[in-house]
Amino acid sequence: MKKCFYIGNKLIGDSSILLQSMGDRKTSDVNYAIKLTNNLEKMGLDMMRFSILDKEDAISLKKIKEKVSIPIIADIHFDLKLAFLAIENGADKIRINPGNTSTSLLNEFIALVKEKDIPIRIGVNSGSLNKYLTKTADFEEAYFLALDEMIDSFKSLGFDKLVLSLKNSDVKKTYSLYTKAYARYPYPLHLGLTESGFSTSGVIRSTIAMYPLIKDRMCSTIRLSLADERKEEVRALKVLLKEAGIRPNLPTLIVCPTCGRTQVDVKELARVVQNKLDYVFKDVKIAIMGCPVNGIGEGKDADFGLAGSGKKDIYVAFKKGKSIGLYNRDDALSLLDQFLKDF
Ligand code: SF4
Question: Mind listing the domains of the chain with CATH numbers?
Answer without folding.
Answer: 5-243 (3.20.20.20), 252-342 (3.30.413.10)
